[in-house]
Input
Amino acid sequence: ATFDFSSESGDQSSTAATSKATGITAGDVKRASTLTAVSGSGSINASGWTTSTHVDTSRYYTLTLTPPSGCSLDLTSVSVDSQSSGSGPASGAVATSSDSFSAMTNFATNATHSASLSVSGSTSAVEVRIYGFDASSAAGTMRLETTLTVSGALK
Output
């Protein structure tokens, strides 16, 4: 599934998938209710990120992918293009509901990164969360921009 933020205002409540594999149900990219929407052309943007050097599991962007009945879903990677303000999160992480968000792949913000996912044979919805942390101020922002792509296979 791919999400294109290029025509978004940044403070929209969600962004729908622009493409997805046939049969897959792709939920919109949204921000957690603990974050504050902030405008930022070509993105989904938020402030309210933790200043802790550890992930705050209540502060994230989220999307859900669901395989069609009778099929299973493998997720192998997510390509994230993130940008933080000068006081926004210096670090990010990606996790999925397949292991209750316990295995996290960290990435540095302000670049495009491909993070590995280890979801195999899921027959139900899988939530993907993108966390931001280690901000120097809660007023700092982190946005997902350009595109977000989750890759894998439908079986």
In short: The mean pLDDT is 95. The two ends are 15 Å apart (CA to CA). Residues 93 and 140 are 17 Å apart (CA to CA).
